[in-house]
Amino acid sequence: MGRRIKFPTLSARAEIAFLHDAFMAAASFLLSLQLRLGGEMLDYAGESLLIGTVIFTTVAVTVFWWMGLYRGVWRYASMNDLLAISRAVTLTILIFLPLMFLVTRLEAMPRSVLVINWFVLMFLLGAPRFIYRIVKDGNLTHVLERGDPMRVPVLLIGAGHPAESFIREMARDRTAPFQVVGIIGDKASRIGQCIHGVAVAGSLASAQSVIDSLRRSGRMPQRFVITRPTIEPEQLRHLLDLAEANGMTLARLPRLTELKNGDGAETPLQMKPVAVEDLLGRPRTVLDREPMRRLVAGRRVLVTGAGGSIGSELVRQIAGFEPAHITLLDHAEFLLYEIDRDLRQRRPALSSSAILADIRNRVRIDQVMLAERPDLVFHAAALKHVPMAELNPAETTLTNVMGTCNVAESCRATGVAAMVLISTDKAVNPTSVLGATKRLAESYCQALDIAERSRSERSSGETQRGGTRYITVRFGNVLGSTGSVVPLFQQQLAEGGPLTVTHPEMMRYFMTTREAVELVLQATALGSGLVTGVTGTPDSGKIFVLDMGEPVKVLDLARQMIRLSGKQPEIDVEIRFIGLRPGEKLTEELFHAGEALAPTPLPGILLAGPRTADWKLLRSALDELAEAAAASRGEQVLSLLQRLVPEYETTATALPAAAAS
After folding, report:
1. CA of 398: how far to CAs of 26, 403, 517, in Å?
2. Which domain CATH number covers 186?
């Protein structure tokens, strides 16, 4: 049995394009005869008009099919498509001429008809394509662009507008360093079509076959370029595996919103590294931003630790919800200067103030609260580096515990509506000074929240503000934050390695800074009773815990970052295990066994039940801790932390003489 010829399956749009071209081929032959013969055309019809039209149309559609003319995406018609049309039309004329000669000897058909037919068919095929493109674009800017050969062959991921923009940009710049050799499409209808002459060769599932085919044709791509604005983490990891297996690198295009500069002009397309946060195995939480706006709009807001990674993102997002005034407070002069300058550039009309202050100074904090009169306080100031906290337990306690007490009590004294404490998963079953001090800060704010709610209920409406609400939000590691592992890996990569990982089984929860802050604002809105459809507020003393998804192995993160840099782990860049540092755990936890877990009406946010002592008793116990910390008695501080946080299991930390004295 002979081998069967398989014709490609056409999409609906390709079928329409093919039928259009076939109709135009027949029409062009008749129109050419009319232009040449005029009224004598009917005399010719009696002899060869019908057979000439059939032969010409048959030849044309065969050539069009063979050359894939119908595969061009009309939305992106350009000079490349015009060149393809000219080749197809020329070949059609050259084949038709001898065939027509064999059948009719061309006795009744003027030879000039073929020349006229070339121009007519070019117009009938090209004009609809370019008119469609012009209507869609609204201008003629991109119609006459043509590509030139480029150096580095790349394979695009995505067959939409960004891919078309990239191919066009490469065609427009004769010195462009990249040559697009193929496209991996995300829509089945696009597979088999072309964009500016570049074929959509397959789907992501068949990417390896596409690479193999390009390799055999001598056009092996050296880089994947992701043109889609979003991509699932699983798909991204699949691309990383393909890139590593084929000696390729991975990059992405900026989103279309990034392609405009400040005055609205287009900026050149430049590839960027794939963001590490794209690799997180968790979907981004879809949030309702209206409750956040109601929380902030028209109110006075103060952010402590405003220059830090969380604090600065809080400032930027809060500023976007039109507060009446925002106060930036930080102990670090340069960080405060940076966020203040950034805010004034972004929001020059927004009322704001930058205050240099130490939260450990109660007198200074009271002065600031009385002068600024905030309605909302977001307390992000803290010492957060585990090894440094282990070496300096007294200083960490003064900032994380006593500083939080100062801010919380000052909020209570000045009638602040709500204070939000930013906490950490290291506060759950802590093995570090950082975790123990943050757990004490949580406990104190929980106790104050319960006390304030009770005081408000006893006042029977006498306190119009209903007492200060203390909202605690707990989450894990934030990608890119100060002291986190990602900036360390980036620095080590820039230096050529090695990347240092404490333990092969070390796991951490990760979240982007932006999403963490969005969820903090959403939790605050829920805690303040501002979420539509949710009556009342959660019970006092509960902790809002952000859903961090599944924990990520730090070793896997290191390997992925190496591969994203275009290198291979353990071959180009070494990964070195240095052992657990004092205070570190292999895995972190988001909840304590004694905290009753409850869902909330909002996705991405959970509630942990309170487990705390009476506020006054706890405050009295903290006085002794404050005295020991102020005197820099490190060993006593550790002992008191263990007493106040029973689940705290200290590691064998060798304190410097100054800290232990």
Report:
1. 88, 6, 25
2. 3.40.50.720
